Amino acid sequence: MNHSERLSVMTANNNMENYEETYRSFDWKEVEKEFSWYKTGKVNAAYEAIDRHAESDRRDKIALYYSDPERQEQYTFAEMKEKSDRFGNVLRRLGVKKGDRFFVFLPRTPELYFSVLGAIKIGAIVGPLFEAFMEAAVHDRMENSEAVAVITTPALLERIPVKELPALKHIILVGAKSDLNEGHYDFDLEMERASSKLDIEWVDREDGMLLHYTSGSTGKPKGVLHVHNAMLHHYQTGKWVLDLQEDDIYWCTADPGWVTGTSYGIFAPWLNGATIVIRGGRFSPDDWYQTLERYGVTVWYSAPTAFRMLMGAGEELANQYDLSKLRHVLSVGEPLNPEVVRWGLKVYGLRIHDTWWMTETGGILISNYPSMEIKPGSMGRPFPGIEAAIVDDEGNELPPYRMGNLAIRTPWPSMMRSIWKNKPTYEEYFRIHEWYVSGDTAYRDEDGYFWFQGRLDDVINTSGERVGPFEVESKLVEHPAIAEAGVIGKPDPVRGEIVKAFVSLREGYKPSEELKEEIRRFVKEGLAAHAAPREIEFKEKLPKTRSGKIMRRVLKAWELDLPTGDLSTMEG
Ligand code: WTA
């Protein structure tokens, strides 16, 4: 890495003028005063994100732009309030109560946003599911959390194993065409019937609001619980990192099935009263540039894989679109290569600002700010109010350039408050007194910039999406041909990593290209497309410990042609 390369400040209007000074003087207490609950003592994050604006001069301001080949829609803050109020009443009439888990399994359409906000308004805990999830992924999340209700479409409903989810009572269908079964409700009809005024549920700051499932290296996905208090963090990072201003048109490309799509696709922009653009469907360079042009997007939050794909699509394509409104570009989810940052500067005339955080942290903790010099390849510096450090396993802080655990001093407003029904896993993160241990390794330079090095566990980061090897391995061994499977992340120039599976076959099965294709399809259709192994390698035998655990470390070493290290625990 080149530690001396710097990109100087180029953005004129910025909410935070001087990083060092702000970092020194900042106090989270100041942020509380921004919200009405400071005076009333009554809290609800959805109220602060929508209703507060609907009751102000912003009532007729556009909150949301949406388009797909069939629909072209826009909603003001007043309309967003009405829609989410109605939906809150729909859920309440079904008997959904404060603290109940309600799942949202929808494509990225306005209904997704109405239902997330409406559910939060009645105090329910929302579990958003990425629309590409297949049955096994949906099952694990809804079962673990004992979801009582879900909103989905007839097509996606086929992936919800209703019979295996005893707690699930109500299914709301968007676009229901045929007669409804018992326990099924038609979204349009219920919305029409419901009152447009909701008696909002005022909750405690520490009450649950969102449950985001995320992968670890072992076991099933973990349900990370976030509370209403996270709004403080979302609001302030929206101001200082996204640099949102009154006239901004903001586009976060992440789906709300992932934490970026809720913290920065819903709350940060709307708490700041900004206009957002939502765009579903698959990535395509033309479509993305068209979206930026059509809406005159000014602030754009995306991910390295997308930037690398746009880079691959070439400068000429970018030049065919009018991107002149764009003023601030940000990235999250995986390491942002310096080449991409330089390319962004050349082609968009803008610096791409890297940000670092995790599902568990609820919001941005380290980042590059518009008013700060950028060192390409570095994630930036801690957000004001956040103390980040590189520590050893005992919690001793390490000097500059020494690699160690990237850790954050506890607490901060958007920190996860629990892992659903899994206290031991939650406590693992806080094993070093007063620190949250991220599981990432990094070092800090002498100017206080953090440089990402890698992950300590086996979690795979493919196109910015976290994939747990255990989930994929469990699916693979359900295939009749597979005896054993080990899954690793293999470095990839565009996607960061790809999922690679090593499998051994059962008696009577022979390796073939067709079998690889069939196995890939099996995972894609059973778990999720992004979790399906892009590469499969057949092995007679997989490296295992004496207790029978597949040694992913050895698989990775085979893959990268590295020494395999200590094999003393390997079976003979
Ligand atoms: C990785 C996404 C390098 C990291 C918000 C982290 C990054 C995991 C960066 C969290 C970055 C996130 N540079 N790596 N700027 N941002 N990561 O939970 O390994 O989906 O632990 O949250 O992504 O992924 P998650």
Automatic annotation (TrEMBL):
Keywords: Acetylation, ATP-binding, Ligase, Nucleotide-binding. It comes from the Bacteria. InterPro entries: AMP-bd_C (IPR025110), AMP-bd_C_sf (IPR045851), AMP-binding_CS (IPR020845), AMP-dep_synth/lig_dom (IPR000873), ANL_N_sf (IPR042099). Residues 471-549 form the AMP-binding enzyme C-terminal domain. Its EC number is 6.2.1.1. One of its GO terms (molecular function) is acetate-CoA ligase activity. Residues 52-420 form the AMP-dependent synthetase/ligase domain. It is an enzyme of class 6 (ligase). This is acetate--CoA ligase. It comes from Laceyella putida.
